[in-house]
Amino acid sequence: MSVSFIRRIASPKKALTAAALAAATAGMALTAAPAQAATTEASSAQAIAHKMIPDAAQFNAFSKIVEHESGWNPSATNSSSGAYGLVQALPGSKMSAAGSDWKTNPATQIKWGLDYMNSRYGSPAQAWSFWQANGWY
Fold this sequence. Notes:
By secondary structure, the protein is mostly helical. The protein has two domains: about 1-30; about 35-135. About 60% of the residues lie in helices and about 0% in strands. It has six helices and no strands. Helix 4 (about 55-70) crosses helix 6 (about 125-135).
């Protein structure tokens, strides 16, 4: 091991930077538990949506809307309007039509959101087109 490498990792700040760089290079992330939990919850909701929406174009459109609306957070709440969940239903209780577990189950929220997009716009892709033109759907 070279002396310069040892000097680089001698300070804790530099050691953390080196570890973060090594982790990033290896495709890993160093995050705090709450951020990791949110990321895990979001990726889980995305996986559920992908299974429910197998068409790539429709999934991508649905995903873009959800990313803008809630960041894939199933408990996202708009403090000014009260809109709730992945798809920001207003009121959130509308999602009870898809299941009584609408407050906590991303699959129920995805089902309701997909049904809403299909009935109101014809498809998630058409809902995304509307969202792009108006900033809401």
